[in-house]
Amino acid sequence: MDCYTANWNPLGDSAFYRKYELYSMDWDLKEELRDCLVAAAPYGGPIALLRNPWRKEKAASVRPVLEIYSASGVPLASLLWKSGPVVSMGWSAEEELLCVQEDGAVLVYGLHGDFRRHFSMGNEVLQNRVLDARIFHTELGSGVAILTGAHRFTLSANVGDLKLRRMPEVPGLQSAPSCWTTLFQERVAHILLAVGPDLYLLDHATCSTVTPPGLPPGVTSFLQMAVSFTYRHLALFTDTGCIWMGTASLTDKLCEFNCNIRAPPKQMVWCSRPRSKERAVVVAWERRLMVVGNAPESIQFVLDEDSYLVPELDGVRIFSRSTHEFLHEVPVASEEIFKIASMAPGALLLEAQKEYEKESQKADEYLREIQELGQLTQAVQQCIEAAGHEHGPDMQKSLLRAASFGKCFLDRFPPDSFVRMCQDLRVLNAVRDYHIGIPLTYSQYKQLTIQVLLDRLVLRRLYPLAIQICEYLRLPEVQGVSRILAHWACYKVQQKDVSDEDVARAINQKLGDTPGVSYSDIAARAYGCGRTELAIKLLEYEPRSGEQVPLLLKMKRSKLALNKAIESGDTDLVFTVLLHLKNELNRGDFFMTLRNQPMALSLYRQFCKHQELETLKDLYNQDDNHQELGSFHLRASYAAEERIEGRVAALQAAADAFYKAKNEFAAKATEDQMRLLRLQRRLEDELGGQFLDLSLHDTVTTLIVGGHNKRAEQLARDFRIPDKRLWWLKLTALADLEDWEELEKFSKSKKSPIGYLPFVEICMKQHNKYEAKKYASRVGPEQKVKALLLVGDVAQAADVAIEHRNEAELSLVLSHCTGASDGATADKIQRARAQAQKK
Questions:
Q1: Where is the major localization of this protein (predicted)?
Q2: Are 468 and 426 in contact (CB under 8 A)?
Q3: Smallest Cα–Cα separation from 762: which of 715, 810, 728?
């Protein structure tokens, strides 16, 4: 174990720091890092280099080259820079490269050098140019802060939702600050800058002077400042060589260290581990690297070549032309297990396992010692935790074997943590591979989450590895394999050297009916790449018409969209396409399209009936549908026109249409309605009252009620109302008026074509039995019994029924014999029945 700790460096009495190699860099850099603009993404992200031709000693004619590498130095992209001078570069949280130009324009590139978009930091920045810029990350997103030539600051806390904020002016500032950085406190971005011995804090409204507590005397300038990865701590490098460390709010001092070097450092970053009480800062000069903290001594390393520092959640990445290393504080579990002469439970368990493999009895002695102290569970947990923080697979296996060995002697140790650690380490070792180049630590991996790691593998187009990880971790298909296959398909459609047919077939063979995959999204990507025919072929595999149709409309394939909507049977979808077609095509082409689609035409007619009546008329005219056109004019005569002339004209148009449709009945009925309307208007003019819009029967009834019998009879003759119907109308009207005298005269005017039973029924309906009896005697023999029963003369009805010898009539009378007074009548009927049966 003492050999294993050879690269451990103590910082004070409570912490060790170690630096180990991640990769041996094989990139072929043509220039030193000092001659390039460098941007490295956190969480083992990519490295971007822009060879800087805007340096004064460089020839202006040299074209700059933007190169993007993985963290292991594997080239990802290379492109000639054809835009303006770049002041600063940085990576967003989505691993997009932000390039801030001198004119304030920010160009955004993808991981493979593909141009994504651009945005401007405002007119003021454009006019005053950019002196310096910072790309920073917060919980709101990735932000950009700009220092202009007018020595003013402008920032946006989230480039995804660009909102520019012009920070307050610093009083008396005539030159650029000696150093500055961005802080993030209470969900608000601030600017901290140094001007001589003074520090200024800028928020959205105010500029305030701040003083670090416990700052040593003699400081006349701040040369460098660094904020921690989590924005909780701040480090200041002064011109006296003193490094002040405290909280980012500048309210508390943690410690200070005098490095006795007055030259300003190239870089200064924090190096701290989550949940660790130790705080350290890494300072880099040309050939020296120093780790300082709350200790009288520092840790120093010699740098053999130009190096660049990348702050991480739990340490610092350091890369140069030849190597890529990681410097961090040794985790507690690793320190307790591996430090010299350690008697920690984890250390004893590791030794016990090694002795067991040697078949030595010392294994039993170590194990007994741990069990006697009751620390076996703690020992297993220490070994599992330490395995997660080890970079080398061999040491990971050794620690996990020790943990597995210890578990055998525990009755109820939950296996979840051991299994989960094995899975996590297998994933981490896979992505740390040189060809993948994502050197995540266990702490970074847990902070990043598996979903984000999969997104980053997809971004690097490492689809097979991402799918293997999903299958290994048994992630749900919608979150794992399906999502990755969808991304693969979206990349596949960008391969323009392959035919549309081959691409569509390959995607369908690979995806099939995989749940969670939307062919419409893939087709949308194909359309965005200018491959419309491929998009249409892909939409054939989309089972949801609701996803097919909107994209087809967007692609100007409206007729195909209409066919798909009709096939789906979704009327709302059909209406959507129809309204789109109506706006897209001229009127004639639109109607011709509808003629070929009966279902769509029917639905559009329904729509027009409620929304666009004139369009409906045009449709009927174009189709020569005279029957529907006649019905349309018929409805229009009642719905729209108030003047009688207009209504008659609409009815005339309806009659003409019905004649063209060879519907004689409808045409004649319409002409009769026209005659009736004219007659009703004349009656209103001559007699007053309300006649218009009454039916023919109601008109006759109204005339009778008004005492205009001759006019009613003339109207009946004009419209050929049958006598029976006229008698019924007159009978009902006179009964409603209770004009019994007139009713009696009417009944005697001539023989009733409807008989006299209706007179009895109408009188009884008006509760006038006296009048009803008058007509009961005039009722014919076949209806005599019914009439007598209606007026309540059961006895006489019985006599008539017996006289007629009609069994049905006898039964009817018998059913009306309910009271005691009708007992004799009932007996008479029964005797009549008995006599009839004897005969």
A1: membrane
A2: no
A3: 728
pLDDT in tens, 641-690: 567 766 777 677 777 777 777 887 877 777 777 777 777 677 766 777 77
Nearest to 442, CA basis, from 457, 453, 458:
453
What is the identity of the amino acid at 760? V
Asked if 346 contacts 338 with a C-beta cutoff of 8 angstroms, the reply is no
- DSSP state string for 320-346: ESSEEEEEEEPPHHHHHHHSTT---HH
Select from 179, 139, 178, 171 the least CA-distant residue to 152: 171
Q: Which amino acid is at 209?
A: T
Burial-class residue 221 by CB neighbours within 10 Å (0-12, 13-18, 19+): middle
Closest CA to 71 of 280, 320, 242, 268: 320
pLDDT in tens, 284-314: 999 999 999 999 999 999 999 999 999 999 9
Q: Please, are residues 8 and 55 in contact by the beta-carbon 8 Å criterion? A: no
What's the CA gap between 535 and 523, in Å, rounded? 4
**Domain 1-17+211-330 belongs in CATH node 2.30.30:** no
The CA distances from residue 106 to 35, 103, 115, 321, 751, in Å, are 22, 9, 11, 28, 105
State the Cα torsion 404-410-413-416 to the nearest 10°.
Answer: 20
CATH homologous superfamily of 31-204 equals: YVTN repeat-like/Quinoprotein amine dehydrogenase (2.130.10.10)
The per-residue pLDDT for range 688-725, each reduced to its tens digit, is 777 776 777 777 777 777 677 777 777 777 777 777 78
| Residue 566 Cα distances to 72, 514, 533, 589, 686, angstroms | 55, 26, 21, 19, 58
Tell me phi and psi for residue 406, to 5 degrees: -65, -35
Range of lowest pLDDT (9-13, 416-420, 432-436, 622-626): 622-626
Domain with CATH 2.40.128 in the chain: 1-17+211-330
Question: Chain-centre distance of CA 338, in angstroms?
Answer: 51
DSSP per-residue string spanning 498-522: S-HHHHHHHHHHHHTT-TT--HHHH
pLDDT tens by residue, 532-551:
888 888 877 777 777 778 77
Report yes or no: 124 and 149 within 8 Å, Cβ to Cβ: no
- Whether the CA torsion 744, 746, 748, 752 is positive or negative: it is negative
> Does the model's pTM come out above 0.85?
no
- Name the phi and psi angles at 806, rounded to 5: -105, 115
For residue 485, what is the enclosing H or E element? helix 481-492
Task: Kindly list the distances between the CA atom of residue 209 and the CA atoms of 33, 202, 224, in Å, as whole numbers in the listed order.
Answer: 36, 9, 18
Cα Rg, the chain, nearest whole Å: 49
User: Nearest 5°: phi and psi at 161?
Assistant: -130, 80
Phi and psi at residue 59, in whole multiples of 5°?
Answer: -70, 135
What angle (nearest 5°) sits at the alpha carbon of residue 182, between those of residues 177 and 183? 130
List of residues 6+ apart from 358 with CB closer than 8 A: none
Tell me the backbone φ, ψ of residue 744, rounded to 5 degrees.
-70, -40
Length of the chain: 839
